[in-house]
C-alpha cells in the first residue's frame, strides 16, 4: 500500500506530527530517522530534513527512493509576506518558487530554474481535497479562530527578517509567506513525478526582529500544522 510522506525541517515541526501518530516504527537511512505510523488509519512516513534547500532536496530524494508514496506533504512554519496573515494562520501552497534563484543575467525571470520553470505547482486534486475539508470545518464553526488561504509560497536559503526583502518578494512573486525548504521539495517531486502539497503555518513576519517571534511561536505554528494534517 502506498504511504503518504511528510517532511518537516525542524524538531518542533516533526514532533508535533509524530505526537499524532500511532504504531510507530523507526527506520534509519543515511543518518535520517524515518518514522512509519498511522494517523486516523492512514499510513504515513515522517522525517526531519533539516533547514535549507539542500537538506530538503536530499531528504526528499531519499524518501522517494526507499518508499512507495501516494504523495508528499511538506509542513512547517513560515514568515508572513501578506500583511493580512497572523501567527497561526495557515497557507496552502498553490505555486512554490525559489525567490533566491537568479539567472536574470541570462535574460530569465527571477526564480526561473533551467528546464523546470519558475513555479512548481502543488497537486490540484490534493488542494481541492484539503479546501473541501477546510470548508466543511469552517461551516461547522470550529476553525474561525484562524485564517486558511491558498496562494504562492516563496523559498530561499535565508531567514527573512528584512522588511525591504519581504516587500520585494511579495512584489515579485505575489507570495503569501516565505520559508526555506518548500520549493526544493517541490522541485524534486516535480522531477520524480510525485504529487506534493506544501502547508505552512505562520510563526512570524519579517520586521527586523522577527527571529524573536519565530522562536516564541515555532511550537505553536508546528502544532497548528499537525492539527491540519490530522483533520485531513
Task: Describe the SSE topology.
Elements: E1 3-8, H1 11-18, E2 22-29, E3 32-39, E4 42-48, H2 53-66, E5 69-80, E6 90-98, E7 120-121, H3 124-139, E8 148-155, H4 163-173, E9 175-179, H5 182-192, E10 196-204, H6 210-231
Parallel strand pairs: 1-4, 1-5, 5-10, 6-8, 8-9
Antiparallel strand pairs: 2-3, 3-4, 5-9, 6-7, 6-10
Helix pairs in contact: 1-6, 2-5
The radius of gyration is 17 Å
The geometry reads as globular
Count of individual beta strands: 10
Q: What strand order characterises the main sheet?
A: 5-9-8-6-10
The helix content, as a percent range, equals 25-40%
Protein described:
- With 232 residues, the chain is of the alpha/beta class.
- It has one domain (3-231): 3-Layer(aba) Sandwich (Rossmann fold).
- 35% of the residues lie in helices and 32% in strands.
- The chain has 6 helices and 10 strands, in the order βαβββαβββαβαβαβα.
- The chain has helices at residues 11-18, 53-66, 124-139, 163-173, 182-192, 210-231; strands spanning 3-8, 22-29, 32-39, 42-48, 69-80, 90-98, 120-121, 148-155, 175-179, 196-204.
- It has a 5-stranded mixed β-barrel, surrounded by 4 helices.
